[in-house]
């Protein structure tokens, strides 16, 4: 479970850069919601 945190960190920074590129805040919120849901489903805290 430990090595996953680094991958999540990278994914978070990718999400941030994606937020900079995306035109609408709603789009970013949707992507972030999906990500958090995916993390919850995979048991990542």
Describe it:
- The protein is an all-alpha fold.
- It has one domain (4-42).
- It is built from two helices and no strands.
- The mean pLDDT is 75.
What labels describe this entry?
single chain, 45 residues, mainly alpha
Strand fraction band?
under 5%
Total of domains: 1
Q: Quick one: how many beta strands?
A: 0
H/E topology pattern = HH
Helix content: over 70%
Radius of gyration over all CA atoms, rounded: 11 Å
Q: DSSP helix count?
A: 2
Q: What summary fits the major beta sheet?
A: none
Average residue-wise pLDDT:
75
Distance between the termini: 10 Å
What's the topology here?
Elements: H1 2-21, H2 25-41
Summarize the structure.
This protein is mainly α and 45 residues long. It is built from two helices and no strands.
């Amino acid at each position: 479970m430990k090595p996953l945190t680094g991958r999540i960190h990278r994914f978070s920074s990718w999400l941030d850069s994606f937020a900079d590129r995306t035109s609408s805040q709603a789009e970013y919120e949707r992507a972030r919601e999906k990500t958090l849901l995916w993390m919850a489903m995979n048991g990542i805290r």
